[in-house]
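Project channel, design review

CF: Before we commit to the Leeuwenhoekiella aequorea constructs, I'd like one complete example in the thread so the newer folks can see what an input/output pair looks like. Taking Selenocysteine lyase/cysteine desulfurase.
RD: sounds good, go ahead.
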Amino acid sequence: MKNLKKEFPVTTNYIHLNTAASGLLSETLLDFRQNHDLDYLVKGSLLKNDQDKFLDGVRKDVGSYFNCDASLVGLVPNFSLGFNAVLEALPKNSKIALLKEDYPSINWPVLSRGFKTCYAIIDENLENNILECVTKEKPDFLCLSLVQYISGIQVNFDFLKELKQAHPNLIIIADGTQYCGVESFNFKESGIDILGASAYKWMNAGYGNGFFLIKNEVASNLKLKTTGFNSVRGAFKEEDDSFIGGLEPGHLDTLAQGSLQASIKLIKRIGQDQITNQIDLLKQKAIEVFSEKKLVDPIISKRAQHSSIFNIKGDQKLFNKLIENNIICSQRGTGIRVSFHYFNSEDDLTKLSRLI
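CF: and here is what came back for Selenocysteine lyase/cysteine desulfurase:
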């Protein structure tokens, strides 16, 4: 893959293995943001006269990237705000299946509303655990992260599709924050009913933007309670009780949402296949190195698939050593989390391995 140090200057001075915490600012994104604010500086409110048209363009690009009708794309500042709005639309007597120790922004909002809950355990048998939970407990909704933020365990998408086919009344709501941008994803063909994500990680879109995608049949049955003047503006928000209108009750930041659009254009320019191939290459080599050194949970080698996020064994001393050697990573759970994106290289993995 071509050298991306110019596109992502941080990689010139650091080995950034921390996309699971935060993506990087690209030169492409910087150019957009500077030009946007320069226009705002010299045009003032004239820039905002076309904001509805501009934001409709963002929805179209998000929908095109994930294969979802633009009319079913909601733009949000982040996943958590959108997810909380969605939960407010669910019947109070709903039963929701969760993953034990999933990301707090998934489980906490569910628990804070007093929904009946049941749980599936996250281990090498994740899919079977979910199936058993759904079959036994018969929940109305399943809410889960597609990729676990500590371990990097990724749920099998074919399984989710089969689960939906076997339980058509089950509504599957997924957080794609640790997944979206890694590979091509066809929302229409997936088993997921609602997919939300913040885009500051694997899409390298900066902060303050995210999106929700929803299947049409679900959108027509769920009425969000959140509303505002912005809910009835724009080509795709003609009714004040529309699902997308409920996700967008107030003004949207064209700088932030435009950053999402710019990041998608960069992904397409580099090529999603090239991005995915590089991540897969690094992921497989990392699994080999970490497994050989017994640095990761044996669960990883037992799974047919895994993300490019790894939690390696290491204490505060090792963490400090990595940071001192310009390797950016995070302490998560009981170990050190490292994550590989397409701007990383095999040399990055080699240097990490030598330091360990």
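RD: helpful, thanks. DSSP finds 14 helices and twelve strands in the chain.
CF: The mean pLDDT is 95.
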